[in-house]
Amino acid sequence: MQAWLKWFFGLKPKRVPITIVSGLPRSGTSMMMRMLDAGGLPPVIDNLRTADTDNPEGYYEFERVKQLDRGDTAWLATAQGRSVKVISALLQHLPATYDYNVIFVERHMPEILASQRKMLAHRQDANLIDEDKAAVDDAQMTVLFEKHLRAIRQWMAQQPNVAVLYIHYSDLLREPTVQAAKINQFLGNSLDVEKMAAVIDPALYRNRVGK
Length: 211
Hints:
Elements: H1 2-8, E1 18-23, H2 29-39, E2 83-85, E3 100-106, H3 109-123, H4 131-157, E4 162-168, H5 169-174, H6 176-186, H7 193-198
Parallel strand pairs: 1-2, 1-3, 3-4
Helix pairs in contact: 3-4
């Protein structure tokens, strides 16, 4: 009867937002996912990618996210009321049929690039990096990444179904409780701030600017 009345009066059921954790690769999105999980927001993950040297606490990924640009969106129906990690390059492929609370993790560009180089070296079992070539590549990648980030910011600002909170990785390490409280407020004040803040381990800040 309730469903019939909603249909008769043209009432639509309230949509439960999907919490999207996003940012550039190696920006701190895995740590953000762990914080939300600890705070009480269940993640959408499949554990296919296991913890390693680069992410000793795990990646918190869901493999099907990588198929968003190919139209694989059916799984999003079960993601409502949960969190899922989506890299910034795939955000524009999220369908407008859902509401999204996006926590966008920012990080100093030199730190991101240094972390990416280390990950690449680990995967190739390489011990040495051509520093001259790396410097050129970093300059090129910085231009490309910054252009991409400007486009993504503009796109999110134009979406009526997207709410965004920008969080900086350095701020998380410096004032975890303050930042956790900010995230909690953004998501409706239903999470455990102390447990979220306890997740942050400053010892994992291995690629800080100036180090």
